[in-house]
Amino acid sequence: MDRHYSPLSRILHWLGAMAVIVMLTLGFMMFFADSREVKHFSEAAHIGVGFFAFLLIGWRSVLRLYQGFPEPAHTSTERVARYLHYALLLTMLILIVTGPLYLFTENESLSVFGWFAVSFDLRVLEWIHEPAEEVHKVVGTYILPSLLILHIGGGVRHFYKQRN
């Protein structure tokens, strides 16, 4: 397989990147909200966007598994980049699972902009609620932003290295 991603993969990457930035922004708005109204608005928007981010990232993951992965990494820089990609994907998977999990374990619905709701009664797993919530907050507040900074820095480095 060649080292390049298909146009569809690139489009899904950038749509996913935009979704992640919106999700992070809304998550930080929730976390640092001064008023109850801002907290509720940002939480509802975070959940709605998260539903579509789940579909988008799911589609991208299935496509990647179907198309395969680019060539194995040869240099240490390529290996670091590959591990960073894996860490980002694992981080997003953790967030996509823990977000709905801590809603469903309290039998709360995942409301998508008031258009429809997704609900699973997982109260039998209520002991997971607090750990899922804490993992979601820590990973979303500290780990994902750190990995994104490294990813963007690597992209900028790669861009300028290709130009020279």
Content of β-strand: under 5%
**The CATH homology group name:** Transmembrane di-heme cytochromes, Chain C
Based on CA atoms alone, the radius of gyration comes out at 18 Å
The first-level CATH class is given as Mainly Alpha
CATH architecture label: Up-down Bundle
Estimate the global geometry from the Cα principal axes. Answer: globular
User: Terminal Cα separation, in Å?
Assistant: 25 Å
Number of domains: 1
Oligomeric state: single chain
Number of strands: 2
Number of helices: 4
Q: What structural category characterises the helix and strand content?
A: mainly alpha
Write down the overall mean pLDDT: 88
Please list the strands of the largest sheet in the order they lie side by side. Answer: 1-2
Fraction of residues in H or I helices: over 70%
Q: Residue ranges: pLDDT <50 for 5 or more in a row?
A: none
